Task: inverse folding
């Protein structure tokens, strides 16, 4: 099964990275809907779409305003947004406020259950994360494989069991180690703590995402530092595709 990184940046897009979104095109699952969400239409391989939102910060939801045309054209027959009640309320009341964006696309809003069974046969579960305003981490189990998506959090050990032994861990890494002091202040993570988490949780592969947009260079987080702790680490890039 394929997974595509549509956007790997945090806060705002830059010339290299759009903000957060991941797609599994074969089963019609998307995690987050940042500025990269415009890329979904051309890559989706199903006529139904399930979107899972970690939280309601703009860099994770703004792309929901981009999807009116695919729904109007019937390219996608059903589009479900799965999120916490708090996130759903923020999206409906603020992102689609009449004075901000007056047309609400034909989304079906679904409050997250503890366990979500997908039409494809996969199962998604979630865990609360430490971040200003709250956030959620997701785990997908499908066809005997397990993937975890953890973004917008400070590593604190509370979700280690949740990600234990997953085949693929996609984890935010907003800051390099030299800026670690900003993690607690902003609710984000730095290189050494993420790589150490991956090692301690015995995951298969680690992909780092949600990168500081002020760093559009080739190595914004110190990849050698991460690989010294957990060798199977990759810095994700927009439009990267992996087999999962």
Result:
């Amino acid at each position: 099964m394929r997974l595509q990184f549509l956007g790997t940046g945090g806060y705002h897009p830059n010339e290299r990275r759009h903000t957060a979104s991941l797609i599994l095109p074969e089963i019609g699952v998307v995690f987050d809907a940042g500025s990269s969400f415009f890329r979904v239409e051309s890559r989706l391989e199903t006529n139904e779409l399930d979107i899972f939102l970690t939280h309601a910060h703009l860099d994770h939801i703004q792309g929901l305003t981009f999807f009116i045309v695919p729904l109007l054209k019937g390219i996608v027959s059903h589009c479900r947004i799965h999120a916490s009640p708090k996130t759903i309320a923020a999206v409906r009341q603020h992102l689609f406020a009449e004075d901000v964006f007056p047309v609400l696309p034909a989304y079906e809003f679904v409050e997250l259950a503890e366990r979500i069974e997908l039409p494809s046969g996969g199962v998604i579960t979630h865990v609360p994360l430490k971040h200003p305003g709250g956030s959620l981490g997701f785990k997908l189990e499908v066809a005997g494989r397990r993937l975890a998506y953890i973004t917008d959090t400070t590593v604190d050990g509370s979700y280690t069991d949740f990600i234990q032994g997953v085949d693929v861990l996609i984890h935010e890494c907003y800051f390099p180690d030299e800026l670690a002091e900003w993690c607690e202040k902003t609710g984000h993570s730095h290189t050494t703590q993420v790589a150490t988490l991956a090692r301690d949780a015995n995951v298969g592969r680690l992909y780092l995402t949600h990168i500081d947009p002020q760093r559009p260079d080739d190595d914004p987080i110190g990849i050698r530092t991460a690989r010294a702790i957990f060798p199977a680490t990759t810095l994700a890039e927009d439009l990267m595709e992996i087999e999962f």
